[in-house]
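Exam revision sheet. Question 4 asks you to relate a sequence to its structure. Input first:
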Amino acid sequence: MCLGVTQSTRSRGQLPRHAVLSSAVSTLAFTLPGSVRYSIHTKSASAYGTRAPSLLPLGAPAPHSLRLTPAATLRDSLSGSLCSSTTSLIRCSARMDLRGRAVLGVNRLRVLMLFYTMARIMAEQEVENLSGLSTNPEKDIFVVRENGTTCLMAEFAAKFIVPYDVWASNYVDLITEQADISLTRGAEVKGRCGHNESELQVFWVDRAYALKMLFVKESHNTSNGPEATWRLSKVQFVYDSSEKTHFKEAISAGKHTANSHHLSALVTPAGKSYECQAQQTISLASSDPQKTVTMILSAVHIQPFDIISDFVFSEEHKCPVDEREQLEETLPLILGLILGLVIVVTLVIYHLHHKMTANQVQIPRDRSQYKHMG
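Answer key, structure tokens:
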């Protein structure tokens, strides 16, 4: 006769009235019709620590701590061996009690993981749309915060040029039109921050349009040692060509997704923000066959990592286009300053020379005046 211990509390019910109970020195078993032998399991070793188990009367409800299991399949869960008739009841029960504690520890770990996941989800929702503070009506401002600290800031104006097909007037040929879709104010925004990966998602026009931007931070070995940079690694634009504001009678109207391929844009040294007032274009391959969506960014100021102060960008890293335009703007001024300096120096030299020559004795050019000299 085998007797084991389990932690389960699911087996509730009554012992059949026609069950035949039998007991030995430290075992309790009964036999149901069909010659299937069952054992009664208890939950804790303490139940038998001081006294032997009492027999249940026929037809009495089984306690919630009891579970009926075929005796032929009872195993000691820790050792994996069958509990023989000579195995101590207290020892077997104690082993199963340890197993119960281990299961309880696993359950606690699962609860902690659940709370951690919920906290991460709540952190992702700490986002703000501050576009109303921008003096540029086309520029949007988005802020992502985690644990009350700003971890991502983005200011930019975005426009998407989306080609789509419509029927010609003869309803035989196809004509390709273009939809100009601008990111509007009041958009819904989501985001998340990480040590090496951050993400910004924007939805507008009742989620007919959605923009997702993924930023990554990487470390590279250079001649000057390891250097860390961050970049825009992926752009995804989802659009609904059945939306009537921008699409007029589009063929195959519906949801389409445009993605970037092997993107490496806005490359910036770690710890700095990226700033670029000039327009930048990014090509996106659409799920609509043979269509390429063009994304145009302007007035960009973004920092997805290493923000030190709330709502304050770190030192700016200018894009090459802005640096070139700034040089083109300042070059005439520099040349003008140099020219003015040359003129001033020339006038000073002339004045000094004239002053020095004025103090010298003038020799008369008329020889008739020589007799009056001396």
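Marking note for examiners. Residues 320-358 form the longest helix (39 residues).
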